[in-house]
């Protein structure tokens, strides 16, 4: 391809890239900043083609200067992205949880209420567990938490050296539950409410049954640590789903599509925080909760500290020091 044709074909792209580049260098928020990385990569491809085809040094030098300036801006904005992520974790996410406290409270009551309620019922009426969970699955749970089994929270054939395998399994399993609870909120919130109750019933039934048969110490020592993050994440995923459902039920003066779009912005941010919680929970579950060489009392103390940490983080992180939020 002749240089003149190459320049005429891509001149508009280079001019647009130069305009965005100038805006970024002046500290302005360019309209196309989101597409800047892809535009930068395309400019690099054009520079490589110009060199390969032996185009004039004037064109090559011009493209190279833009490439070097673009590299500086790309690096600077990537650093800003890291700062934004850190800000979200340390302040924005807990603020959002408190802002959406009504949905969080509703989801928490559905999930933890059903969990505690069915756990007490199964403990008092043991046969009730078989109305909720198949006998084969109940037997499998008993094998996982048998004090004499020599393993904890995993099947006998899975060795402790495979913790990294369990870490990946826990992430995929828990994220699947959280996403299901969140996305089903599009069914006018009924789906999220169902999965909050369902998961609460399943977890509570297992807890009540194992406590009744004398396996409570191994079970509670296993779940108390990662449960702070995992159970909180399920409730928050449900809150995000309920928010979507409420936007469809009561859109106010907005069209339902617009109300849903606005609600989805905050719901998706909530889910980002949920993913972080589930990642932490999976790590704790794989590398700490399943450890058999730690005294149960130590696990209880660590678990209590983690529950306190989660509560403190969600209630107080990101608050102004001298002014109410």
TrEMBL record:
It comes from the Bacteria. This is Membrane protein. InterPro entries: SpoIIM-like. Keywords: Membrane, Transmembrane, Transmembrane helix. Pfam families: SpoIIM. The chain crosses the membrane at residues 103-125, 167-188, 195-215, 227-248, 268-288, 300-318.
């Amino acid at each position: 391809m002749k240089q003149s044709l190459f320049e005429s074909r891509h001149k508009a792209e280079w001019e647009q890239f130069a305009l965005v580049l100038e805006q970024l260098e002046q500290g302005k928020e360019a309209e196309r900043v989101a597409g800047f990385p892809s535009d930068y990569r395309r400019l690099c491809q054009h520079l490589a083609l110009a060199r390969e085809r032996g185009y004039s040094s004037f064109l090559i030098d011009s493209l190279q200067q833009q490439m070097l300036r673009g590299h500086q801006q790309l690096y600077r904005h990537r650093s800003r992205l890291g700062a934004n992520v850190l800000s979200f974790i340390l302040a924005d996410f807990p603020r959002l949880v408190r802002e959406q406290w009504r949905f969080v409270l509703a989801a928490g009551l559905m999930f933890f209420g059903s969990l505690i309620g069915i756990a007490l019922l199964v403990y008092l009426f043991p046969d009730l567990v078989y109305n909720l969970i198949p006998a084969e699955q109940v037997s499998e749970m008993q094998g996982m938490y048998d004090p004499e089994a020599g393993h904890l929270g995993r099947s006998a054939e899975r060795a402790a050296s495979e913790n990294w395998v369990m870490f990946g399994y826990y992430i995929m399993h828990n994220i699947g539950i959280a996403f299901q609870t969140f996305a089903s909120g599009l069914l006018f919130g009924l789906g999220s409410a169902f999965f909050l109750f369902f998961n609460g019933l399943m977890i509570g039934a297992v807890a009540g049954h194992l406590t009744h048969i004398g396996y409570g110490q191994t079970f509670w020592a296993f779940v108390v640590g990662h449960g702070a993050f995992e159970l909180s994440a399920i409730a928050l995923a449900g809150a995000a789903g309920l928010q979507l459902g409420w936007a469809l039920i009561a859109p106010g003066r907005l069209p339902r599509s617009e109300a849903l779009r606005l609600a989805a912005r905050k719901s998706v941010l909530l889910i980002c925080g949920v993913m972080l919680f589930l990642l932490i929970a999976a790590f704790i579950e794989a590398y700490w909760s399943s450890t058999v060489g730690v005294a149960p009392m130590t696990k209880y103390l660590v678990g209590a500290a983690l529950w306190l940490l989660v509560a403190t983080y969600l209630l107080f992180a990101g608050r102004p020091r001298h002014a109410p939020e």
